[in-house]
Amino acid sequence: MHLNPYGMDAVNLAADLANRRPADAEELAERCRAAGLVLEKPATAADLRRVGATLDAWEKVVDTTGERERADLANRMLADSTAHPRLTDHAGDGWHLHYRDDGLSLGALLASLIAVGTALHLVGRGMHRLRRCAVPECAEIFADTSRTGRQRYCSHRCANRDAVRRHRARTPAPGARNGAPAKRC
Question: What is the mean pLDDT of residues 92-98?
Fold first, then answer.
């Protein structure tokens, strides 16, 4: 069985690209290759612009809180970037589905992968499982792929930082007397 690349991998790639936008077309191509995409054409400045517009639209999906609005924004992305599903064996690696036309530029390909991957992630895992980190000073986007669906942080580092902050807020400082806070340097 050949699994299609539109699910979790596409959403994680979108988060990676949104959290650290590529500076140029070559960086975009390198990061796509590192994510496992086979590039049929060289990346161009037009691809970089298209990916930037796609990521702008995608971040609106991430940042909205209402399920209906999130669905409407994701549907708009799907309408703008996908085609009828089709069976393909373009690389001789087995039959699988594409939700896009063949021969697309990298920018158009990523728009399709991100739109379909996001839709599959939201309906398959839950409409709430795409968000920004709960640490106020961290704006990283992540796709919650945890078993329980309760992931709040982009990384263990942010989770630990927030746990330490909460612990310090409820623990009196050493040397505090009669409920008066101790002086900290």
Answer: 80
